[in-house]
Amino acid sequence: MRFVAAAVPLFLLLCFTTPVFAVEQKPEIIVDRMVVKLVRGITNVATCVLELPKQTYRSIRDRGATGIIIGPAKGTVMVFYRAFIGTAETVFFLVPAPGYYDPMI
Fold first, then answer.
1. What is the 3-state secondary structure (H, E, C) of 39-62?
2. Which of 1, 16, 27, 95 is the most buried (most CB within 10 A)?
3. Cα(4)–Cα(82) distance, rounded to whole angstroms?
4. CA distances from 15 to 4, 5, 7, 11 (A)
């Protein structure tokens, strides 16, 4: 009986205070953020192949001769990583996560 006596006020408190903290957004803003997330995901999938020369160039610039070996390996990993993140953002563009339609990377 004590559990019910303690749970009922807690339940009522949660029911009535949660809507107070809700932020009302205009539908246009929500749709705009969804579209930005969708386009960002499609762009990541379409341009993921460019990570290979980009990472190779950066590694050679920063590390010199050892960058010739490290760069392509790093670029290959980044190609798959960017393709995965882009696919996830494209598929789940309706879900407001992480944050509020913020980039996953």
1. HHHHHHHHCHHHHHHHHHHHHHHH
2. 95
3. 51
4. 16, 16, 12, 6
- Collapsing DSSP states into helix, strand and coil, what is residue 104? coil
Q: Which has more confidence, 44 or 6? A: 44
pLDDT in tens, 12-24: 656 665 555 556 7
102 confidence band (pLDDT: 50, 70, 90):
confident
Position 105, amino acid: I
Amino acid 2 reads R
Q: What is the pLDDT of residue 32?
A: 92
Please give the C-alpha separations between residue 16 and each of 20, 35, 37, in angstroms, as whole numbers.
8, 33, 33
Considering Cα of 32, then 50, then 55, then 64, what sign does the dihedral take?
negative
Burial class (CB in 10 A: 0-12, 13-18, 19+), 43: middle
Pick from 105, 94, 87, 102: nearest CA to 42:
87
